[in-house]
């Protein structure tokens, strides 16, 4: 089963998701040598130092960064917000720099508040955050390379394992749904066999959601007080979260009424 | 995400929520009861104007059907004024029906506020209170699966047949499930990143610019 019940006195439910496959931290880019490119980039603040890159903690952070790049090219203001709201429709882009792009144009380096990006040299692969990769792709300045796990054989293996097991299997990335959607929407020409990948990810998603519902139903039926679900991603939690918490609230109130309550205060008049 | 109106939910418990519309409507449901003491001059008010003796006095022991809010106000532990009987849906016969299969019952017909009303009944001392509480809980648990499945799997369809047999509490849950599903589909279609007019602004019904030129 997807849950390990334990009958505790507390009636709060606790659903925790273990971290999915860890995303590799990008190599620290300390390269400050500008190779006299045609475009001169000036950093937004007078400091010439590179700020250390944040270590990402998914699921709780609320950060916003403003980066301004000016030079001979017109001013580009990049506003990055990273919000994790409960509403499933408002999932934002994950900030893991996990995508490799190649630029066919002139070399470029970006000095941003969160860290440095670059130097981008034409024809050489570089790791960038997802938002930048999508943006560059939309402007047709680069070519995306899909992550390692976005491969038909690997996804088939994951899907079959998901179907066999009763518990949730760890997913290659805690944001596999969002990544699949974005990459297949904007960069499907760079990804081989994109339609099959889409189908496979959808199958895996359906299996996981069905397991989640089954777990929720058995949780309610046995009136457990505590459940632990591993390897759930945020997207799955958000789709069923509202309904489940409301239903469990009602159940909690129903259960507290099982005990005879002490006599209500009545007014004497 | 931002709604124009956040409703106050019903207070599920011995006390109702004062501001909740659901609770106000629920407390209007009638309750069979019996007057324990003579109630002078109240026969006309309580609906027994014709058959009262001695002017307007309501004799002791007469049966009344009064709304819940009135029953709660008049009820007293020393039982001077009123004694309350259970409505038929909470009695032994229906309780066995619920325990047999709760999915089949049309809870909307049983009083659209089955759960809320059942809670309020626990206020009146009654020897069957523990069984009533247990039945309500078991009914909810048994129907939970069906509500979850039906709310999470119908998208853009007519749901009137599905919600027809649910009572108000379950309908609120159904709508929460539908909202979650709609939000997910909206994200999947890519509408989440499009800027749309907020529902608050649309409700203002501002006149358009062209309308003002005449």
From TrEMBL, chain A:
Compartment annotation: Nucleus
Keyword vocabulary terms for this entry: DNA replication, Nucleus
GO cellular component: GINS complex
Limits of the GINS subunit domain: 149-253
InterPro entries linked to this entry: DUF4597, GINS_A, GINS_bundle-like_dom_sf, GINS_Psf2, PSF2_N
Residue span, DNA replication complex GINS protein PSF2 N-terminal domain: 110-145
Gene Ontology process terms (BP): DNA replication; double-strand break repair via break-induced replication
Transmembrane annotation, as ranges: none
Domain of life: Eukaryota
Family in the record: Belongs to the GINS2/PSF2 family.
PANTHER family: DNA REPLICATION COMPLEX GINS PROTEIN PSF2
Name of this protein: GINS complex subunit 2
Organism: Alligator sinensis
Source taxonomy: Eukaryota, Metazoa, Chordata, Craniata, Vertebrata
From TrEMBL, chain B:
Entry keywords, A to Z: Chromosome, DNA replication, Nucleus
Location, primary (coarse class): nucleus
This protein's name: DNA replication complex GINS protein PSF3
Cellular compartment(s): Chromosome; Nucleus
Gene3D superfamilies: 1.20.58.2050
Superkingdom: Eukaryota
Residue intervals of the DNA replication complex GINS protein PSF3 N-terminal domain: 20-75
Gene Ontology biological process terms, A to Z: mitotic DNA replication initiation
A Pfam family it matches: Sld5
Occurrences of domain GINS subunit (ranges): 93-187
Record family assignment: Belongs to the GINS3/PSF3 family.
Mitochondrion in keyword set: no
SUBUNIT field: Component of the GINS complex.
Keyword Nucleus: yes
Role this protein plays: The GINS complex plays an essential role in the initiation of DNA replication.
GO cellular component: GINS complex
């Amino acid at each position: 089963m997807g849950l390990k019940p334990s009958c505790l006195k507390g009636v709060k439910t606790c659903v925790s998701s273990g971290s999915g496959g860890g995303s590799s931290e990008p190599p620290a880019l300390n390269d400050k040598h500008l190779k006299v490119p045609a475009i001169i980039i000036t950093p937004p603040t007078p400091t010439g130092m590179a700020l250390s890159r944040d270590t990402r903690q998914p699921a709780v952070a609320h950060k916003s960064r403003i980066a301004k790049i000016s030079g001979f090219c017109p001013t580009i203001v990049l506003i990055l917000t990273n919000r994790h709201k409960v509403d499933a429709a408002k999932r934002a882009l994950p900030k893991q720099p996990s995508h490799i792009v190649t630029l066919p144009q002139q070399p470029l380096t970006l000095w941003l508040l969160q860290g440095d990006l670059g130097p981008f040299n034409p024809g050489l692969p570089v790791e960038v955050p997802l938002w930048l990769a999508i943006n560059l792709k939309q402007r047709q300045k680069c070519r995306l390379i899909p992550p390692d796990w976005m491969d038909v054989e690997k996804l088939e293996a994951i899907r079959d394992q998901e179907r066999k097991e009763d518990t949730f299997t760890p997913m290659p990335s805690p944001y596999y749904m969002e990544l699949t959607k974005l990459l297949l929407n904007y960069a499907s020409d760079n990804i081989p066999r994109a339609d099959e990948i889409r189908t496979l990810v959808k199958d895996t998603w359906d299996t996981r959601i069905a397991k989640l519902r089954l777990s929720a139903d058995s949780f309610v039926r046995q009136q457990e007080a505590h459940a632990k679900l591993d390897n759930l991603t945020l997207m799955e939690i958000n789709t069923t979260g509202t309904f489940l918490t409301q239903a469990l609230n009602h159940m909690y109130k129903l259960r507290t009424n099982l005990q005879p309550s002490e006599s209500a205060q009545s007014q004497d008049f | 995400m931002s709604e124009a109106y956040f409703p106050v939910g019903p207070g599920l418990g011995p006390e109702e929520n004062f501001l909740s519309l659901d609770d106000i409507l629920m407390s209007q449901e009638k309750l069979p009861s019996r007057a324990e003491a003579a109630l002078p001059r109240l026969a006309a008010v309580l609906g027994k104007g014709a058959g009262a003796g001695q002017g307007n006095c309501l004799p002791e022991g007469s049966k009344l059907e009064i709304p819940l809010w009135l029953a709660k106000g008049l009820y007293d532990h020393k039982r001077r004024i009123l004694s309350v009987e259970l409505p038929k849906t909470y009695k032994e016969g229906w309780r066995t029906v619920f325990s047999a299969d709760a999915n089949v019952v049309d809870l909307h017909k049983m009083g659209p506020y089955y759960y809320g009303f059942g809670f309020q009944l626990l206020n009146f001392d009654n020897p069957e209170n523990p069984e009533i509480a247990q039945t309500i809980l078991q009914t909810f648990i048994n129907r939970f699966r069906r509500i979850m499945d039906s709310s999470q799997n119908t998208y853009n369809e007519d749901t009137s047949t599905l919600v027809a047999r649910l009572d108000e509490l379950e309908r609120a849950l159904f709508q929460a499930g539908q909202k979650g599903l709609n939000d997910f589909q909206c994200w999947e279609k890519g509408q989440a990143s499009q800027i749309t007019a907020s529902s608050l602004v649309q409700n203002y019904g501002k006149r358009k610019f062209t309308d003002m030129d005449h």
